[in-house]
Write a structure and sequence with these properties.
2 helices; alpha+beta; 127 residues; single chain; five-stranded mixed β-barrel; 5 strands
């Protein structure tokens, strides 16, 4: 009985070894792409996401002067369609972090580079 299980396992392994390369073949080996223009259009190659300025209100949750980062628990930022959340932001200059305190309510400006990437360009105590 044990010999039969080992034989079946060996047959299964050998079968896999010989059949897996067939499944991996994407049938593109005989495709001639020499006449295809693979160059990206100049406008597309030069395009960068447009920077967008936005404003927010939040509470300072953390400050990392060495990394030039501030953690803000911010309200919704309508210009970027962001809901309220807690985020780490890089600051444009370490000088922006001077005078900030954890727990302080602040107003800030962001330069968004698309997605969730944004740089704090100004920050001051909120009124």
């Amino acid at each position: 009985m044990m010999m039969k299980k080992r034989s079946l396992a060996l047959v299964a392994i050998v079968s896999l070894i010989y059949t897996l390369p067939v499944f991996a073949d994407d049938n593109m080996g005989n495709m001639n792409m020499s006449k295809m223009d693979m160059a990206m259009p100049a406008a597309q190659a030069a395009a960068k996401p447009a920077s967008k300025m936005a404003h927010g209100i939040g509470v300072v949750k953390g400050i990392d002067a060495k990394q030039g980062m501030v953690t803000l628990d911010h309200e919704a930022i309508k210009e970027l369609n962001w809901p309220p959340m807690n985020m780490d932001f890089k600051v444009a200059s370490p000088k922006l972090l001077k005078g900030l305190k954890v727990g302080q309510k602040v107003a800030f400006e962001l330069k968004s580079e698309g997605g969730m990437n944004a740089l704090v360009t100004a920050i001051k105590p909120a009124k």
